[in-house]
Structures are given as C-alpha cells and as structure tokens.
Amino acid sequence: MKKILSSRLSCGALRLVLTAAMIAVPAVGSAAEHVVSQKGKAFNVKTLKVKVGDAVKFVNEDPFSHNVFSLSAAKNFDLGTYPQGGAKSVTFDKPGTVEVECAIHPDMQMVVEVAK
Description:
Immunoglobulin-like; 1 helix; 8 strands; three-stranded mixed beta sheet; globular
C-alpha cells in the first residue's frame, strides 16, 4: 500500500513539475510562419509586418509560375521559379524594410516590415 501511494504521489508531483515548466517557458522569441498567397498576378497583401526570425511562405495559387525575390539591404533573396501549387519560404534575420517582387510579373510588389 505504501508503495502504491508513494508511486501515485511521485506521478502527481511529476505532473505538477512538468505543468509548471510548460507554463514557465515563454512563447516570446519563437518564430512564426506567415503565409502570403499569389493569385491573379498579385500578392494577397501589400504590406506584411513580421519579427526578426519569422518566415514568410509564398504560395503560388496562379495557373502559371512565379519567381519571388528581393534586392533590399535588409534581406536579399531569390526563391527561384516555382509552378502552380508550389511554395517557397524565406526567413527574415534582421530588421528593416524589404521590398518584394516577382521577376516574371513586375507589377507584383509588396513590402515586408521586419521589426526586432
């Protein structure tokens, strides 16, 4: 009987410690993934606000290819060409304003504001 009671107390204490640890771990600092769709030769948003460490996933919902890129000092990237249904991601690693375009469709433009 003592062994069973001791085992139950140990399991209860363990649950309490694990619950407290999960509550104590801050969600601050965890990166987020934002999704931007491309449809009708346009990004679904003109401006997107993210934090350093966040990623943006560009999803092609058009029946033709896109090529998302940026020459901005805050983030220079080229995701390459990808077809309908394709998706590519980029992580923003420093604060600043990032002008994003499609190399195939020059009227497709948006801005990503990256905050600390």
